[in-house]
Amino acid sequence: MFDFTPDPDASKADLYRELLGAADALTAGESDGVANMANVAALLGDFLPDCNWTGFYRMVEGELVLGPFAGRPACIRIPLGVGVCGAAAKSGETQLVEDVHAFPGHIACDARSRSELVVPIVRDGAVVGVIDLDSPDLGRFDADDQAGIEALAALLSDRM
Ligand code: SME
């Protein structure tokens, strides 16, 4: 049994330190990318408060395809450059969106989502997928979340 219970009183920095340690422990030495993404999606859902969707899209033949996640069923395929995920995948840059309704082309997979953080996962200079976090709260994500999820994306780039 794995027990990676987040400390409810932890600071954001400590929370991300714990999350990265847990993700490292769960994925180190495991070659199956789906298993690794599934466990990390579950960890994200458990560790990060006020999120309604946490998970992965993978780059498959030039478009993003839904990967493992925690949350409600979501859009399956997203073209490059479309929506928040497509923008992150096309540019290779993190998209931190305080209000998804103000983001041109935002794709509403879950009508509850109000803010979003999408971090590209880069391997050998190419985007191989994204980590996507959605929250029902406006402005839920900040620079600390961005730094924490970017560190997670770097950890997972050759484990998915
Ligand atoms: N909102 C995303 C689509 C994916 S869902 O949030 C799970 C976007 O605009 O790309």
What does this structure look like?
- The protein is α+β, with helices and mostly antiparallel strands and 160 residues long.
- Helices cover 34% and strands 26% of the residues.
- The chain contains 4 helices and 6 strands; from the N terminus they run ααβββαβββα.
- The longest helix has 16 residues, at 12-27.
- The protein starts with 11 loop residues before the first helix and ends with a helix.
- The relative contact order is 0.18.
- Methionine sulfoxide is lined by residues 53, 74-75, 78, 83-86, 106-107, 109, 113, 116, 132, 134.
Per-chain topology:
Blueprint lengths: L11 H16 L5 H15 L5 E8 L2 E9 L5 E3 L3 H9 L3 E3 L17 E9 L2 E10 L7 H14 L4
Helix pairs in contact: 1-2, 1-4
This protein binds methionine sulfoxide (SME).
How would you describe this structure in keywords?
single chain; 160 residues; alpha+beta; Beta-Lactamase; six-stranded antiparallel beta sheet; 4 helices; 6 strands; 34% helix; globular; binds methionine sulfoxide
